[in-house]
TrEMBL record:
Residues 38-290 form the Mannitol dehydrogenase N-terminal domain. Residues 301-489 form the Mannitol dehydrogenase C-terminal domain. This is Mannitol-1-phosphate 5-dehydrogenase. Transmembrane segments: none annotated. PANTHER family: MANNITOL DEHYDROGENASE 2-RELATED, MANNITOL DEHYDROGENASE DSF1-RELATED. GO terms for biological process: mannitol metabolic process. It is an enzyme of class 1 (oxidoreductase). GO terms for molecular function: mannitol-1-phosphate 5-dehydrogenase activity.
Amino acid sequence: MSTPTTSTLPHLGTAQLDAVAATGAAVPGYDRAAVTPGIVHIGVGGFHRAHQAMYLDRLMNQGQALDWGIVGLGVMPSDVRMRDALAGQDHLYTLTTKAPDGIEDARVIGSIIDYVFAPDDPAAAVNLLADPQIRIVSLTVTEGGYNIDHVTGEFLHTSEHIAHDRAELQAGRHSDLRTFFGLVTAALAVRRAAGVPPFTVMSCDNIQGNGEVAHRTFLAFAASVDEELATWVEGNVAFPNSMVDRITPETTDADRADVADHGYTDAWPVVSEDFTQWVLEDRFTAGRPLYEEVGVEVVEDVVPYELMKLRLLNASHQGLCYFGHLAGHRMVHDVMADPRFARFLLAYMENEATPTLRPLPGVDLDAYRHTLISRFGNVAVKDTVARLCAESSDRIPRWLLPVVRENLAAGRPVDLSAAIVASWARYAEGTDEQGAPITVVDRMADRLMASASHNHEDALAFLRDREVFGDLVDSPDFTAAYTRTLASLHTDGAEATLDMLLES
């Protein structure tokens, strides 16, 4: 008997849920026809679907929050792929979590009920956001999506699309808006004019003080359009902070093939680790789902938790990816199979990151640090080094450099943090230790690589970009550690450099 090919298998959709359930995958236990929209999410990708949408699906499976269905909103041209993938399967998708011990859990998530691609009809997208049913607008737009200057933290008013949207809104037009700033601000203006209460803007991005960043940037844009509107936003719209955590690699064809083993096809399944965490500030404009009933930590102050995550987990990702790539590794679990990487990351976390954290009563930081090492080494997740190396000009300034600056100000060591920056500089040269080309994925790739090309004749060339590094090039303590590591990477390679760092 021949095995069915993927092309002969039924596609995931509402009509197939009973058959999918028979394969052992969990399916929504609620009537999706009864779910009504309450949230618009901008930036639907793997992480949102493995995290926020998953928590809401849990609530719905308990018979709650059926009036909080998610409508995805795509703004970037590339978002058309997600629109089409979800539309073809009734906005259902498969989430498979993989534990380090090999246990897998597959379930179909049903909390996303629609998807709108804003470039098709920006005015319709504004109408969606202005609908009184929508009480939360959530965001995963990446670190670079907030359009802020890395050094000053100020909103960049002069970027082309921002300037375009400002002019559109000042002219009273919604038909050609290009940014989520323009769309959301237009909808808030419509709600204000109609006397409709505003929605909460809930950032779920890996940024320290993500709610405050969203608050500052949206307010700056609104003020540039209409000062009275900005005053209303300031007084009426909530921007809660949150800390989110779940390692979610990019979906591969192998992941799609794994889903096909269950007897159906899914255009864009999601795979993640089994660990998940969400800490959320309890500050909302127009209510919220009862997230705390499905494991979300709803708190008054998120800052200590987000610092723990960003400076331990996220900065450690940068600590392993450049050294790991230079050493010839392409999968994160292969990097972590080398004990020197675990020792290096633990040393960074214990000696440099942890002293910059705020008090966390009841949290065992030593256990958390070692849990991270275990998570990074999860073979089943198949996370790639390339994913962690991407968009470093957004990540390093937000996750690692605050650690550097706090330690310098306190007179504490920065040797290992400086080594991570040096490994980025070596990576940005564009060739690995075997002479193979490195594809640097970064919005500033050309500029970074141009700076890195001078590393040999000027050891501080990469650091001289003050838009990225501020005044760190002026710090003797930092530059001494940085140049020592960069020289070792050039002469001895990544593995020997790690040995040198660990010995010292």
